[in-house]
Amino acid sequence: GLAGLTNYYFWVRTNCGFGDFGEWVALDNSGSPFFTTLTQLNYCASGSTGNQNYFTNFVTTGAITNVSNPTGYAVGGYGNYTSMTITQAQNGTVTVNTSYNDMAGGVGIAMWVDWNQDGTFDNTTERVYNSAAWISIPPVVTFTVPPTAVLGNTRMRIVVDWNLTSPNACGSMT
Q1: Rounded distance, CA 74 to CA 156, Å?
Q2: What element of type H or E holds 26?
């Protein structure tokens, strides 16, 4: 693929046949001979040192396009499901239902959506759920897409942590 935040120049010329070519011309629809690729976001790492708690199902409802993902155990405690897409308009709501293999004794759960697509999960403006307590019943989370959300692909992260009631979006969980 192309590298993020990189200018690429392109030129065209006609091939009239028999070794006869037209002049090279810079070409694009905006009148500029180059285009710049979009920002390549590098999200912080998230993982786990334990394997006691993990998703067994993730289902959304209420969106334009919903997902149903019986995720199961992910090696290293992190499952990358960025190929799955939930579609919703600004001011629309999404409801998330999750299931876990074992919540006995309670776990902390938090969920973020990178609304401004800056590659970070802000606890103030982008955390759409935080258990803030040990919970032993999977939460049903409903959130509204803010009217200021940047249009396009936006990343969601859900963290389950055995040791924290308010998990962090980044780092190693246990």
Answers
A1: 17
A2: strand 25-26
Distance CA 9, CA 109 (A): 46
Nearest 10 degrees: CA dihedral of 121, 44, 136, 141?
A: 30
Dihedral pair phi/psi, residue 14, rounded to 5°: -85, 150
Rounded CA-CA distance 174/166 in Å is 13
CA dist 137 and 108 (Å) reads 11
Buried b (16+ CB within 10 A) or exposed e, 119-151: ebbeeeebbbbbbeeeeeebeebebebeeebee
pLDDT in tens, 4-51: 656 666 667 788 888 888 877 765 555 566 555 566 678 888 877 766
Strand 20-21, strand 55-61: pairing: unpaired
- Rg of the chain over Cα atoms, rounded to whole angstroms, equals 22
Q: What's the pTM value of the predicted model, to 2 decimals?
A: 0.75
> φ, ψ for residue 161 (rounded to 5)?
-135, 125
CA pair distance 172, 47, nearest whole angstrom: 5
